[in-house]
Specification:
The complex is a heterodimer. By secondary structure, chain A is an alpha+beta fold. Chain A has a single domain, classed as Roll (SH3 type barrels). In chain A, 17% of the residues lie in helices and 38% in strands. A six-stranded antiparallel β-sheet of chain A has the order 1-6-2-3-4-5. In chain B, helix 9 crosses helix 10, helix 19 runs antiparallel to helix 25 and helix 23 runs antiparallel to helix 24. Chain B is elongated, with a radius of gyration of 28 Å. Helices cover 65% and strands 7% of the residues of chain B. Classes of the chains: A alpha+beta, B alpha/beta. At the A-B interface, helix 1, strand 3, strand 5 and helix 2 of A face helix 3, helix 11, helix 15 and strand 9 of B.
């Protein structure tokens, strides 16, 4: 289990846990980001900026600030099916 | 459901970026009695339309991801939906992200109100390789589903026919099938609701929303009003949490998430080929860690250069006859009362046409273009890092960019910011963003007389000032910013017709609301000049404008009127100095021109901006905002005077 911020780019990842407060959790849920969803890290900006992740389950992209991305724990899924 | 003598209320509801407003405008445009405020919907828009002889009251609500509000924009949508029971809901869905969009649809179904689903952006879904079977979806949901492509006006007639049909004889939507344990808990709570409990829609819906609520206020209130019910609610939530190992609201939300995904799988087929769409490739470049920033700067430069390059020759062309006519008037009438009134009229009308519109129209057009292709959230992503340095985050970029058009909708759009702190800081900073009126002044004065690069330099300074002020304000608002969570919707190929329509609607509202102010203001100044009342005002203000800032005494009165509308200051400036546009530099120096522009740009933007801050944020903040603008405008223009020396 690693934090989303340390996850490799363009690998399939599974959301295992969201450690943020209720506000952050609710916001993510409303945007279609749930536990066990498969996501992908699409882009990272420079200077410690936000990351861009794509939820493959609900097919939406979200920009997350660094602080929030740190609180999302993911597992790397190896197989590419 | 519909009462004969009342027009049925039809509500448009959908998640942000689903094309809801485009669809609404397409329908309201058929025979609308009211004008709409296009762009990001932050307040609801009412419009009466007559369809096949039937008058409908259609209402466009701000986009909401869910019926559990996480920001103020969603609050607006919900309070309307809950307080005024609509006769029909039209749920607009972005078909290209069907699974996610259906989560809101499922929540709406729980309301058990008559509903029609508009499966919008079918073309986009097709491009993404998603093949949706609308009939299948219709039978699964139990509500009529109509496919539309709002941007091309397709499917709108079918949607209206279905809506009218549904008003008369609507079927109740299918009930949601929760998993057994969740369903049991919902039924249990619904059964325990006392008879006098304020039910929204129906008992089940109310129970679900109570479990999902977790807002301190609601829980506290319930605890005081009905401690017994609160006890049951707490226990039910705990049970759900224990069974599923996540907070109760997440249990409910996850149920909908899975259900929506199942509906998506059952009704659609994804035939994703290997090829990535061209737009996705463009996106990779737009958000590239290095190229993205270069493009951002290029977009910004192009934005102003285009407006200037288009506006400048048009302005020159239009000014010529007006200047000539003014000379003619002066020769024929002499300096009597009639001349002052006629001159005021001419300045007001002519200034509006020749000086304001040439810059205003291309600016509106480009703003709509950036908005429609979806560049703003991408700019938000790129700018997040820098915004953190000034104590905000990337989401505030969108209100800021809107501020370049007009500060008023920009301040309204701060509703999408989740934290009050971010809203207050952003709203205090927006008045420093040069809106189209101020851009007109900067382009018409600085760029026209000193050259376009002076104007760009001015903008660079302006942005720096906003950054420094943001940093400064953050010192007083210490609560941490929650951080960026911003959806990046897919890029859209803009429709020229839609952009033109949007620009036109905004132009109409400018002509309707701003022009009268410009004309009346100019005539009043003409009368003041005739009665020499303007001199009294100028003398009163002269210690500040003349002694401190080194500006011509005559400009005092124009500053006062600038408070009504910024363009008025520019038009009045010429009138007060008694020169036409081309001879301006004979009565004012380059330095004075710069100081005037600086002061005008950072001074209180206009009455409407103050009013909207008052209404949206609060009285204290509105007063604070005025003080901040007066203080900053005075300090900076004084500093500029000391540096360039007049």
């Amino acid at each position: 289990m690693i934090s989303l911020i340390d996850a490799p780019k363009d690998k399939r990842l599974r959301i295992v846990d969201v450690q943020g407060g209720h506000g952050v959790r609710r916001k993510l849920l409303s945007l279609g980001f749930h536990k066990n969803d498969i996501v992908e890290l699409d882009s990272r900006s420079i200077f410690g900026g936000p990351v861009l992740i794509k939820d493959l389950t609900s097919d939406t992209s979200v920009a997350l600030g660094r602080g929030i991305a740190q609180k999302i724990m993911v597992d790397i899924i190896d197989d590419q099916k | 459901m519909t009462i004969k003598n009342k027009h049925p209320d039809i509500i448009f509801l959908g998640q942000p970026n689903c094309g809801k407003s485009t669809l609404f405008n397409a329908i309201a445009g058929l025979k609308s009695e009211t004008s709409n405020f296009p762009g990001t919907t932050v307040k609801h828009t009412h419009s009466k339309v007559n369809i096949l002889g039937r008058v409908l009251n259609i209402i466009d609500l701000p986009g909401a991801y869910t019926l559990n509000p996480t920001d103020d924009a969603e609050n607006v949508a919900l309070s309307h939906l809950f307080v005024e029971k609509p006769d029909l809901i039209i749920n607009v869905i972005d078909a290209s992200i069907l699974a996610r969009s259906l989560e809101l649809t499922l929540e709406l179904i729980e309301l058990e109100y008559p509903m029609v689903v508009a499966l919008n952006m079918m073309d986009l879904a097709e491009k993404k390789g998603i093949d949706i079977d609308p009939e299948k979806l219709e039978s699964l949901l139990g509500v009529p589903v109509v496919t539309t492509i709002a941007s091309h006006g397709r499917g709108i007639k079918e949607l209206l026919d279905t809506a009218l049909d549904c008003l008369d004889r609507c079927r109740k939507p299918h009930q949601i099938t929760w998993t057994k344990d969740v369903s049991d808990k919902i039924e249990e709570l619904a059964g325990r609701l006392p008879a006098d409990f304020p039910i929204v829609a129906n008992k089940r819906f109310t129970a679900v929303k109570m479990i999902e609520a977790g807002r301190l206020l609601f829980d506290k209130m319930l605890g005081e009003i009905n401690p017994e019910l609160k006890g049951h609610l707490d226990r039910i939530r705990e049970d759900l949490e224990r069974m599923h190992n996540v907070p109760a609201y997440e249990v409910i939300s996850a149920e909908r998430h899975h259900l929506a995904f199942k509906l998506f799988e059952a009704s659609s087929e994804v035939k994703r080929g290997k090829q990535i769409s061209a737009l996705e490739r463009v996106d990779d470049i737009l958000m590239h860690p290095l190229l993205g920033y270069l493009i951002l700067i290029a977009v910004f430069l192009a934005f102003f250069l285009i407006i200037f390059k288009v506006g400048n020759p048009v302005e020159e062309f239009l000014l010529e006859p007006i200047t000539q006519f003014r000379g003619y008037l002066s020769a024929v009438l002499g300096r009597n009362l009639l001349f002052y009134i006629a001159d005021g009229l001419l300045q007001g009308v002519g200034g509006g046409v020749a000086i304001v519109l040439p810059y205003f129209v291309p600016l509106l057009f480009l703003m709509s273009f950036l908005e429609d292709i979806g560049y703003l959230p991408r700019a938000g992503f790129l700018m997040d890092t820098f915004m953190h340095r000034m104590g905000l985050h990337g989401k505030s970029i969108s209100p800021f960019v809107l501020g370049f058009g007009c500060n008023v909708p920009a301040i309204m759009s701060t509703r999408m910011l989740e934290s009050r702190r971010d809203r207050v800081i952003t709203s205090l900073l927006i008045p420093f963003i040069p809106c189209s009126a101020r851009t007109t002044i900067v382009l018409a004065l600085v760029a026209f007389y000193l050259g376009p690069f002076w104007a760009l330099g001015f903008y660079a300074f302006n942005i720096l000032l906003v950054a420094v002020l943001g940093r400064f304000l953050s010192l007083f608002y210490k609560e941490p910013s929650p951080g960026l969570i911003l959806e990046i919707p897919s890029l859209k190929v803009p429709s020229l017709a839609n952009i033109a329509k949007k620009t036109y609607a905004q132009l109409v509202s400018f002509v309707k609301f701003a022009w009268p102010v410009l004309i009346v203001g100019s005539v009043i100044l003409g009368l003041m000049q005739f009665t020499h009342l303007d001199r009294v005002v100028n003398v009163i203000l002269s210690p500040f404008f003349e002694k401190m800032l080194g500006l011509p005494e005559e400009l005092g009165v124009t500053m006062v009127f600038g408070f009504l509308r910024k363009e008025l200051s520019l038009i009045m400036m010429l009138q007060a100095l008694g020169v036409d546009y081309h001879n301006l530099m004979s009565v004012i120096s380059r330095e004075q021109l710069i100081i005037f522009t600086v002061f005008i740009s950072f001074f209180i933007p206009c009455l409407s901006t103050v009013a909207i801050i008052w209404k949206e944020i609060g009285k204290k903040e509105a007063v604070l905002s005025m003080g901040l603008n007066i203080g900053v405008a005075s300090l900076i223009s004084l500093a500029v005077r000391l540096i360039i020396g007049v």
